[in-house]
Amino acid sequence: MIFKVDTHSHTLASGHAYNTMREMAEAAAAKGLQALAITEHAPEMPGTCGLFYFQNLDVVPREMCGIRLLLGAEVNIMDPDGNIDLPEKTCRDLDIVVASIHPPCYGLGHTAEENTRAYVETMKKPYVNIIGHPDDGRFPFDYEVLVKTAKETHTLLELNNSSLRPQSSRKGTRENMLTMLDLCRQYEVPVTTGSDAHVYADAGNFSRVEEVLKYCAFPEELVVTTDPEKLLPFLNLYKSL
Ligand SMILES: [Zn+2]
Ligand SMILES: [Zn+2]
């Protein structure tokens, strides 16, 4: 499987990442990617950029170092009602919106029922395109409901390469991804791949995700990042064309 797009990465603007947009684009291009999404942490994440950062992204050219840039956000799912930390209008104007659960914003200790509801309500939002790292055993939820709702709402589920790092704080990620992929195959629900790179060397790095996809012989036609044309219909960018 040859990946042509990375739908999740961060730059210096996120506060705990280490490179510029240009450095990330250059690294992604060197790996042979055709498009890179830069999805900074939304304002409730400690140390990240504020609302105006996201509202001013139209000044940035969408082509850099010979590849296409998709500029957006990784919004925080704040509670079991699926509230997120950017206004709907701001999300609409972004190229791509990933929504994820992070302990500093959502907290630990919600029930599986609450976590499932958080994902379902988030996916119903019209400008949420991707659920980021739905693989973290610290937030148990119902995978069958997640996968079926993804299909109904035209939302992509992410395979996050950083979740599979041995040092990752997320729990049971490989096993959870395999559970999700089994259901995605059964219900024919596409997935996306995100490096979640916080440093240039990881841009477009899918080595760990690739191993999991191979292990379960997941069908390539359900992986949207092997061709930008497969991904675009799921994004805000496409909606505005
Ligand atoms: Zn995240
Ligand atoms: Zn991230």
Note the topology.
Blueprint: E1 5-6, H1 21-30, E2 35-41, H2 51-55, E3 63-64, E4 67-76, H3 88-93, E5 96-100, H4 103-106, H5 112-123, E6 130-131, H6 143-153, E7 156-160, H7 173-187, E8 191-194, H8 207-215, H9 228-231, H10 236-239
Parallel strand pairs: 1-2, 2-4, 4-5, 5-6, 6-7, 7-8
Antiparallel strand pairs: 3-4
Helix pairs in contact: 5-6, 6-7
The structure holds zinc ion (2 copies).
One zinc ion is lined by residues 74, 100, 102, 132-133.
Describe this structure in words.
The chain contains 10 helices and 8 strands. It is α/β, with parallel strands linked by helices. It has a single domain, classed as Metal-dependent hydrolases (TIM Barrel, Alpha-Beta Barrel), CATH 3.20.20. Helix 7 links the parallel strand 7 and strand 8. It is globular. Bound molecules: zinc ion (2 copies). The site of one zinc ion (ZN) has 5 residues, from loops.
Helix percentage: 25-40%
Q: Treating each run of at least 4 consecutive H or I residues as one helix, how many helices?
A: 10
Q: What sort of overall outline do the alpha carbons produce when their principal axes are compared? A: globular
Q: Give the overall average pLDDT.
A: 97
| Largest β sheet strand count, sense and barrel closure | 8 strands, mixed
**Termini separation:** 29 Å
The helix/strand order is EHEHEEHEHHEHEHEHHH
* CATH level 4 superfamily: Metal-dependent hydrolases
Radius of gyration from the alpha-carbon trace, in angstroms? 16 Å
CATH class: Alpha Beta
CATH topology: TIM Barrel
